[in-house]
Amino acid sequence: MNAPRRGPRPAGSDTRADILGAALELFSTHGYDAVSVRMIARQAGVDPALVNYYYGGKSALFVAAMRPTVDDELLAAFINGLQPETCGEELIAFVLGFWSRHDTAVRMTGTFVAAPSQQEEQEYLRHLIVERFLRPVVEKLSPDHHEVRTELAAVLLMGMMAGTSVLGLPRLDGLSVRDRARLLGPACQGFLVGELPTIGDDGGTSTERELPS
């Protein structure tokens, strides 16, 4: 870890960016609970009051530091180009590619798995995966049961990202993005556009009922 700055701040320094950079480093290294506003301020070389001034507090700063940014035009173009026959593999490849290009996304997933009680991170990841990546795909391509399909695919994507960034599974980590997409794509394809089974209160062997829409 870099040593905290000492002495006057250099001319032209960007206080907001310095605070954000310090927060990213500390949250990634120590986790949310172990990091205080004073630690962030000391690392950034600023008065603690400036952390609250620029970001409104630790929780808002955490989300700002850890959240990856999404290119809206790129995402829209990707979704518009998806076809039912290949959407599972292509979606997996897109999400894995996004995660591999955004180190903060990997760190954020790791912190979420290690500390799932962090509501700010949980809500942002849910929004990113469900609302940004999945819901538009399901609404475009899926024939029915949109909410259930969205949630099933979300479980798959979150497990995939956690396995990559947290569990360190060597055989999967050693595969290319495209190879992982080929392996996981059929499962995702089934959730998005495949025929879903009926379910029953005892696991599906009796009293069968339709999935909710």
Automatic annotation (TrEMBL):
GO terms for molecular function: DNA-binding transcription factor activity; transcription cis-regulatory region binding. Residues 13-73 form the HTH tetR-type domain. Keywords: DNA-binding. It comes from Kytococcus sedentarius (strain ATCC 14392 / DSM 20547 / JCM 11482 / CCUG 33030 / NBRC 15357 / NCTC 11040 / CCM 314 / 541) (Micrococcus sedentarius). It comes from the Bacteria. Residues 36-55 bind DNA. This is Transcriptional regulator.
